[in-house]
Design brief:
This protein folds into 2 domains: 109 residues, no CATH class; 192 residues, Glucose Permease (Domain IIA), CATH 2.70.70. It has 11 helices and 18 strands. It is an alpha+beta fold. Helices cover 24% and strands 23% of the residues.
Length: 328
């Protein structure tokens, strides 16, 4: 395993150390078949692509094997584990992982706002800023809030095929507010999944005035399709945050961030009550992959057609922050 691959795999190491003496990971591949290869459609290349998944075999074992699930609930979902790993990725020695990571995943350093040599730790590199011209904001009314793989649904009440058919969506549990859930029950929803290789700052999808952010406590399960295919409810049991973005033309948009395994923290960088421009930075995730969720009132927007078409086939659409997510 290369140094780059070990960045995330070390995070997952604690998931299986309790059974190393009785389970041979090199010879027993049964746990690898629990979820199919993750494929997504890249809007920019117009190609169907295969995702390189950090610690893939470990994720498959953890969420698809009884022993893996035992360690998941005993240790890995707990905040202390992710906090420890976030601390580890903030140590100066972790900076040695940066250049191998850039090379392995072919990241374009020309997009970085700062030189890769200026980062004091891997975590600083992970939540790096980009040059404004690297992510231009489209004239579309509503834009994607993050780089990532997106699923979009025109009517939340009709969601029944989130990665695996038959998994319904529990909006009241997600929002932790029955009255708010009733208001948005037939609205549109977009799930944006960020992988560890992605730019990890998230932005506002439209111009408006944001409220204070509400934090809902919860564990930190993975939000990879490998995990969500087993149990979609991780989305509404994980730690999450909700900000209401009040707009003139599109009602009040709910903007959420979902924590996940090895995400050290969710940082908000905006000022509540102060108007923001479309595409303005909202905050960032520290180390780890995670997700954002954007929810619209019924009838306020029309999600982009390529987003709807791919989501109907249970295929995520890869698109960058600032590109079209929805229109009127």
């Amino acid at each position: 395993m290369s140094q780059v691959q070990s960045t995330y795999s070390t995070c997952l190491l604690a998931q299986y150390f309790i059974v190393l003496s009785v389970f041979d990971f090199n010879s027993d591949k049964r746990f690898l078949s629990c979820v199919e290869t993750i494929r997504y459609f890249n809007r920019h290349s117009q190609q169907l692509e295969t995702e390189k998944v950090y610690g893939e075999s470990f994720l498959r074992w953890t969420y698809g094997n009884p022993l893996g699930r035992l360690s998941l609930h005993a240790l890995v979902k707990r905040h202390g584990f992710s906090k420890w790993y976030g601390w580890r990725m903030s140590k100066p020695i972790s900076a040695s992982r940066i250049q191998p990571f850039i090379e392995h995943y072919s990241l374009d350093e020309a997009d970085f706002a700062e030189s890769s040599s200026s980062f004091g730790s891997f975590n600083e590199f992970f939540y790096r800023k980009l040059k404004p011209e690297a992510r231009p904001i489209a004239p579309s009314p509503i834009v994607f809030p993050a780089d990532g793989r997106h699923l979009g649904f025109a009517d939340i009440s009709k969601i029944d095929s989130f990665f695996v058919k038959g998994q319904s969506f529990d909006l009241p549990a997600l929002l932790d507010d029955p009255a708010l859930a009733e208001k948005y029950a037939n609205g549109s929803l977009v799930l944006s999944r960020l992988c560890p290789v992605d730019y990890h700052r998230f932005h506002f999808p439209a111009a408006g005035t944001p409220t204070e952010t509400k934090t809902i406590a919860g564990p930190l399960f993975s939000v990879s399709p490998i995990a969500l295919a087993k149990k979609l409810s991780y989305l509404w049991t994980n730690k999450r945050t909700i900000t209401q973005l009040k707009t003139e033309a599109y009602g009040t948009i709910l903007v959420m961030e979902i924590g996940a395994t090895c995400v050290g923290s969710i940082h908000q960088t905006f000022a509540p009550g102060i108007p923001v421009a479309k595409g303005a930075e909202k905050g960032y995730f520290a180390f780890g992959g995670s997700s954002t969720i954007t929810i619209f009132e019924p009838g306020k927007v029309q999600l982009a057609q390529d987003l709807l078409d791919n989501s109907a086939k249970q295929i995520e659409l890869y698109a960058k922050i600032g590109t079209e997510m929805a229109g009127e």
